[in-house]
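Morning F.,

Quick status update on the modeling queue. The single chain you submitted on Monday has been processed. Sequence for confirmation:
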Amino acid sequence: MTTHQATATSDPTRPPGHRPEQHRRRAPQENRLRKYRPDLQGLRAVAITMVVLVHTGILGIHGGVDVSFTLSGFLIGSQLLAEIDKTGKVSLGKFWARRFRRLAPGAALTIVVTAVVAWIYASPFRFRGYMQDGFAASLSFINWRQAENGTDYFAADGSQSPYQHFWSLSIEEQFYLLAPIALVVVAWLSRAIFRNRFLVGLFLAAVISGSLYLSVTTTQTNQPLAYFGTPTRVWELAVGVFVALNARFLSRMYQGLAAVLSWVGLGTILVTASLITEQTPLPGYAVGGPVLGAALIMAGGCANPRFGAERLLDNPLFNFVGNASYGWYLWHWPLLILWSDIVGHEITYSDRFRVASGSFVLAVAGHYLIERRLKANVRLVQIPWRGILTGLTLTATAAVAMFLAIRVVPLNLDTAAGASAAKGSSVGYADEKSVKQAVLQKELSATAQSILPGAPKDMTHYGCIDNTDVKKFVMRDNCVIGDKQGKRSIVVIGDSHAWQWGDAFESLGKSLHVKVVTMAKGGCSPEVYAIKNPELNREYSECDSWRQSAFKSIDGLKPDVIVVTSRIRQEVTEKGAEQAFKVLEASGAKLVYITDTPQPGRNVPDCLATHIHDVSACNPAEDKAVEFPDFRAIEQKGAERHGAEVLDSLPAFCADNVCPTVIADQIVYFDNSHMTGAYAKSLAPFLKPTIQKALAD
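Structure tokens below.
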């Protein structure tokens, strides 16, 4: 799920030189519509605080992104509609100059500084990917890159990018590009046909309803696309524009009703935001609460009620936070993502407060040193081409810097001299003694250093695996490994933790003259469990249908041995394990159950690259790396009841309560969970006795 930048937009109607105390003077009741709305400055502060608290993990109160989108829509809508009413058109040059002046300096500075910090402190294996995200952020299309990549905003696997928070800013900038053109065209048509704003209201209603429908339906089928896509988010901005369209009518509202609406709106934001969790399918219907609450505050405030929520929102603290909110949004996320690399340890709860406060200090400095100075330079708006040129120059500078970082800047890989020329061989697993020796290793050898750069891409080279959306197992050429002409056959079935054994079974199959068929699907256990897929944020129905088709394929193959292995998950049930092993036993094949491999808990190549001289810092304790021991026992007993030969994988990975990440100069994992192909290949002798016995039986 995610949240968002609360402040991509400053109040476009705030008078130059305005002092905070001026906005607190009560406007005359006969002129309730005001050029500056202090309640919205306070709402901006609330939204960014919600964002920072949920991102840093201090408090799980979601919805700041949605409040901010609606607020931005209202502010920009108010500005555009006022100009259309006054002149019948919009000065696109001045509008875009204001946006560039407001957004480009802080964004460009954040993008470039984050790149420098990432190069110095972050894993060199992450750097190129980060810079690709930075390039996309600088050109305001990172939201589409994240939708395509299926980004999980709250993933805890180290896959988060320090630039991914730019997704919401990208959506807003896309909105700023198209909104003035669309409003001018629709407003002109409305005046020509109806001599009023009717067509504008109809247009906005259509956008809101269509985009909301897309949001709800796409959330159920493609959650990342719904979360990051512009069409599924634009309704939130359009709600703000719709309120702005009706501001004059709303200003005539009864004062008591207006006050109630504003307080109900604030309560709606806080209550619904606290009900949203990381498990809530977002955006979908769930974001409706924060959007509605923000709209009610805006609507009620149009009447300038004496005892509305403005009584709370209009205060010096909120005004101060609101001023720094854009910078706070820009800086808090990269600081959060890079913090553990900077300080050299996993982020603690107290670190989260340091990130929140440190990024706020940077935001305040940026506000006074950059934002206010540019805001005072009215020539950048009065002469639009200067403002646009300034923004384009800053944007181009950031984009070029990212391009050079991708193509030219060398990786900051701290390896010993001569490591790249090391000629030693990486053995990998030899016996349990080799694992015990690895526990004592401190320095990463020259041989291991020489293969480290290739470790992130050393995935298994053999076997097939189906993606999340695949609903049926289909036999392909690359699913058959080992001795493809062998008379005897083995089926290896499971999820990616079965697929990771591919190189081992390729080697083993050839040595035993056995054909090996791999059946693997990401995140899908062969045991019959009701799995919720975090990428889809829903029940993993594709796994159920795929599993059934795989079982049918096994009936047709009639293998001699079926090897079952997968990642242990919390969904394990005795009934589910029983059901699966019963079906597999009925095939007539001998069953082998390989227990799950350890979970390092962090990306191993990343860790090793920054701990060349202290490998032990990357080695997890066995009791932490072995997930869900109670559930492992349930699954293992289910296998044993149906005659499966159980092979405990842990002796090949752990010893003395430590699971080393480098064994006999071989990198054990290519990410935070899966074996490298090279280490898997070294485990062929470890598997051989059990597989030979099963074939003999």
